[in-house]
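Archive entry. Fields below.
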Amino acid sequence: MSETIAGSRRGANVEFRQVGMALPRIDAPGKSHGKTRYAGDHVMPNMLHAKVLRSPLASARLRRIDVSKARELPGVACVLTREELSGRLAPTDIAGQTGRKRLATDQPILVNDRVRYQGEPMALVAAETVVIAERALELIEFDLEPLPGVYDPFDALKPGAPIVQGTDNVVAKYKVRKGDTEAGFAAADVIIENTYCTQFIEHAFLEPEVGLAWVDENEVINIRVSTQVIEHFRFIADAVGVPHNKVRILGSLVGGGFGGKEDVTVEIYLALLAKATNRPVRLCYTREDSFFGHGKRHPFTLTHRTGFTRQGKITAWKVDMTADAGGYVFLSPYVLLYATVAAPGPYRVDNLHVDARAVATNNMFTSAFRGFGAAQACIAHEQQMDEAAKTLGIDRLELRRRNFLRTGDLIATGVPIESAVWSDECMTRAWEALGERTPDDGPIKIGRGVAAYQQSYGRITWLHDTSEAWVGIEMDGTVVVRSGVTDIGAGQVSALAQIAAELLGVHLTDVAVYNSDSSTTPLAGTTTATRALYMTGNAVRLAAEAVRERLLRRAAQEFEVAHGKVDMADNRVFVADHPERSMALKDLVAVCASEGVHRSELVMFRAPFTGEIDPETGQGRVHPDYTYGAQAVEVAVDTGTGEVTVLKSVGAHDVGLAINPDAVAGQIEGGAAQGQGYALSEELRYEQGQLTSTSFSEYLIPTAMDVPEYKAIILESRSGVGPFGAKGIGEPALTPVAPAIANAVADAIGVRIFDLPITPEKVVNALQRLGN
Amino acid sequence: MTVTVSMTLNGKKVSADVEERTLLVSLLRDHLRQTGTHVGCDTSQCGACVVHVNDRSVKSCTMLASQVDGADVLTIEGLAKNGELHPMQEAFRDNHGLQCGFCTPGMVMSALDLVANNPDPSEREVREWLEGNLCRCTGYHNIVKSILAGAKAMRKGG
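PREDICTED_STRUCTURE:
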């Protein structure tokens, strides 16, 4: 269940008619009908089917690859290897509407010489059927010379370690030097020091990577693909060697992303094969391909040293963190930056010292995943706060209250937080919503935990992020929104429709949104970084406001009243003080059309633009703003079997303003489930770089049976930089969940398990150690 | 070897010539172009491919097409009547029972089999029944709510 805190609408001076309503999403009928066409549902005449050959070894040299037998197989149209690609590289840096020069992290599209992770692509096949393509893969002969590998980031830092990337395997570094940490520790009454570890996590979106490409009559490579980022057309064009305006990405509604479809997936393979064969080519990953085919969530090791006064005030905080970047760089530098910014969480820390590094290994490469480093940071700082509370003998919630940031305080990077910080309100309400404590029952021990967080929304401010949208009103009074934004399932498109409906006085069903086409819809940037509503929502708001303004000016003339006295709702335009004086919106539109009044607007919304932070101190602005909130949980631990059951789980978040409260609650509930899997059951295991969990029978995401009835509490400070004061909720919904569960387990059994996931084996072992 | 499969699909007689090894889900999606049934895992864990064969829910990635010869097959596309959503589909729409929507057809088809045998299931029974249907977006919360609401609407409807 969910509730919106009514009292939190204070400060409201606008009566909303569409925004804030829990309306059914505009994409819901198609999806429940089975009519929605996902990227994998499209076919074309004369279409070929593609497959990717992947390296079975994680660290090797490709001595020889012979595809002659595969090419001879009837039905095989094309086989591509390093021979044909002659060293072509694929960009792997952050994509989208960014003014930043690309980092020099391009990687070979297909293995050229070195294999750096298990699953690295070595050859591409296109054939008449999937079965023939699979047979062709089996006919490719290759000779891989095993090379010494390194599978742990700390081993990779040692002198003499095999070098995977650069000269020392360090692919990114960040630091924060704020205040005087030594003085802060000297002033501390108690110093708490612990190390926390997190694991590799799989996105496990239900729709595996898929796309269909064809070259059209204008030599444009068209790719219909499941992606979070249609702006990848530039990277794809660079990789294939054609001008940017000769690649078109048509996004579809995406069957789940969570960051896993933020990097390029199948697009470059499809572009190369379609260009080579001049036929349409489809590539659809199997689930196993998906486990090998996209980057994972970074495992982090985080050592925290925190000084407190006896009264529980933080005097200094030192964090050292190491992330496993895997075989290639991808978005590791950005994930590491987010983790650095979020290192001390939602707390005021005047003396802060952070050292962070991402290190290449021969494990699977790691990249974006909902929470993007801040989730790993939260797992550490929130367990650290509980450990401190235990040592200090202060209530866990009270210790947090004594240290929460307040509006105007300086965050880790030394800039003031400008929006509301309702951490305390969120934490308190989440905790209260747990209700009566479930009693222990023999070997079943009950525990409770809470976690608070700080998570950015919007991209890094030195990426100079922009988003475009076009809004127009048709002759019959219906509304059209055009924007490149991708909808990855959270209701991004529906929210845009709701904003346009609000401002143009129509109903949600009167708005059509055309999105996700890199050639015909204005480019909106990525659906990543909890930025879609903030950026594109603002662009739609500005465009709709411009159209509204013109229509209302013309209506004021018609009604012979002053401008500002006219309003619009329910497809009508009326004098605000005399609503009986009204006209149909379509009649006003007809007047405007006949007089040439411009009935549409194209807008670019710009995030704050800054330069980079100071590399020596980590001080400076990094993000447009931050969301704050908390998760509270109650767990039952079977001390006999070690099994942990989540009994209650409540997420309370200040979302600024909920454009659609049901959609917001959906994010909070979905985040609660993903976070629960993160805490308890999910782990991609790599043994010497070899993945041992390659299906949903080994990689266990929560089922309906595993999860309780989640509760979502939505608070609205109206203080965000999104449309109408909204903040972001996509990533924040997940971030505090895993540490809240970890804290609850520690509360139940009296001992902490410092490395996730908290499996039954670890619980039993911890209890045995405690018993000894 | 090619086999001819004839069946009733969503109330209409259809037949197709397919290779013996063809799975039911491939017959539906690739040969008959009924793409509402999805493939999420191809190892029968996720349940995105659930359809009804002779009124029982099955994962169509675990059956050969030849096994449905002569059978009555119902997919998500066959539920709406005269363009009107089935009460269970309406419940998913009205209760925000979907986000990305990829698991939705399987969830709806699975739910209908439950409700056919248990018209008034408890929340626990719904959760137990959904053990073979994975969702990564919703936390199942609104899916369970949708199924309970859909079951209620179906009881009222007849």
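CURATOR_NOTE: Residues 62 and 144 of chain A are 5 Å apart (CA to CA).
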